[in-house]
Amino acid sequence: MTYNRNASQEVSEFITQNILSGVWKPGDKIWSENEFCNNLNVSRIAVRDATANLTAISVLRKIRGSGTYVENLDNASLEGTRYFALGIEDVLDLMELRYVLEPYCTRLFTERATAEEVHELSDCYENMLRNSNNEKKDYYSNQFHYLITLGSNNKFIIKIMDYLNDNMLSYQQLLSKGDRRKNNEIGAEYHLKILQAIKEKDKELAEAYCRFHIRLGMEVYRDA
Length: 224
What we know:
Radius of gyration: 20 Å
Number of helices: 9
Structural class: mainly alpha
Strand order of the largest sheet: 1-2
Largest sheet: 2 strands, antiparallel
Strand content: under 5%
Low-confidence stretches: none
Number of strands: 2
Shape: elongated
Distance between the termini: 51 Å
């Protein structure tokens, strides 16, 4: 069987979905090359390419003479973290990162965002309200903060948040497993306060509202 990049991508997606779903947990041994080839009907070259790429970002770990194992999240690279399911402590660590980065992003957005970017943020907030009783609310809540990150126009912050964006959505979904009504009320209130401060070009107030919003989310998550 000849190698093609689509086959390598198929193997990679199969592995990462098994990790995200918990089928393969950190420390678990994954399939051998023969098992991948027989079950997915792909070549050895495709399997080796996929596992090599995931090993390079510390999602997988190869042990000579033993096999290939799922790495621990603590040892994963920044890019690799998005391929792991989040545990309770992981979510709290992610919240702490948000608390450091996002308020300043909000300040930068207030200073630098174009009228079109502010309008897009406003539309995102309206979509969040319209979908407050379904799972799309989590997407729009996450997207609200991601749009602020993009509008900060800081390429390094954007790269970090790009890597973490999938985990941010997982965090929103985990948070929603608590008191959804309370979460919705907090989200609607503070996203609006942030948006109004941005429209008024009050960067200090926008930054402060964002910081308090994230801190309050941490408290709600701990309670849940």
